[in-house]
Amino acid sequence: MTGPRKKAKGFTLVEVIAASVILCGAVMLVGRVGTQAMTGTKLNRRYEMATSLINRQLSLIDYIGIDAFIEAGESEGESDDLGYSFTWYVETEYQEIDSLYLVRITVSWAEGRRPYSLSVDTMFNGIIPMEEETGETTAQ
Fold first, then answer.
1. Among 26, 106, 136, 138, which residue's CB has the most CB atoms within a 10 Å radius?
2. Are the CB atoms for 47 and 18 separated by under 8 Å?
């Protein structure tokens, strides 16, 4: 006579394989999220560096004045910030209203094989010529 069978304690092979697949999927998902976060952080750092370069150029234009900046003729260049290469370009356009200039600064760089750029537009006051300032004309 055999008595009631005692149920064995433990997991079956199917349960172990299912748990392993779920665990591997979770680990891969966490790894992918971490990789994407690092890539996004790196790209955000490049945008911060480009913004810093634009701020430096705007500060220079503000310090020397838009008229002197245009006369100097330095409207493009390269910058190596922390070993990374950026190219910047400044475009100015006279608005013919109260001696206003539209200034557009564009910074570009490459991340791998993909190009990126950041552009900022602002307005600066130029120096009003003396005859416009006093309302006098030179032809009499």
1. 106
2. no
pLDDT at 111: 84
Q: What is the pLDDT of residues 77-131, one digit of tens each?
A: 888 876 788 999 999 998 888 889 999 999 999 888 899 999 999 999 887 655 5
Q: Where are the domains of the chain?
A: 13-134
Is the pTM of the predicted complex or chain greater than 0.85?
no
Contact 116, 110 (CB under 8 A): yes
Radius of gyration from C-alpha coordinates of the chain: 32
Calpha distance 106→54 (Å, rounded): 8
Measured over all CA atoms, what is the biggest interatomic distance in the chain, rounded to whole angstroms? Answer: 134
- Amino acid symbol at 79: S
